């Protein structure tokens, strides 16, 4: 390496073939060579860390509702009748889910 280089520190890391292809594609889209692209991403890029705990809770609640709907449907098939209380209960649970979805999309 020439001594008079502006950038005289070398950084090495390993990637898979697929990762290299992805880096090259992104560099091409940015109209940069690989070295410039990686330097720019290392210095100016950012990582978005997403918290999916609300989504996991939402999935859990939706699964609960699905189980309850199945129970009501099973009962309706057995006795050919669904009570108003069952419908009100399911409606209340769905309203709770809608509230959680709104809260999620509002960043809450």
TrEMBL record:
It holds the Pfam family NikA-like. This is Plasmid mobilization relaxosome protein MobC. It comes from Paenibacillus solisilvae. The gene is mobC.
């Amino acid at each position: 390496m020439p001594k008079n280089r502006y950038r005289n520190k070398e950084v090495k890391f390993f990637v898979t073939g697929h990762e290299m292809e992805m880096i090259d594609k992104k560099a091409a889209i940015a109209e940069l060579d690989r070295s410039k692209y990686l330097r720019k991403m290392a210095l100016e890029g950012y990582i978005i860390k997403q918290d999916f705990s609300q989504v996991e809770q939402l999935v859990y609640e939706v699964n609960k509702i699905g189980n309850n709907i199945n129970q009501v449907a099973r009962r309706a098939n057995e006795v050919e009748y669904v009570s108003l209380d069952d419908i009100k209960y399911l409606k209340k649970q769905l309203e709770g889910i809608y509230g959680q979805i709104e809260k999620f999309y509002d960043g809450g």
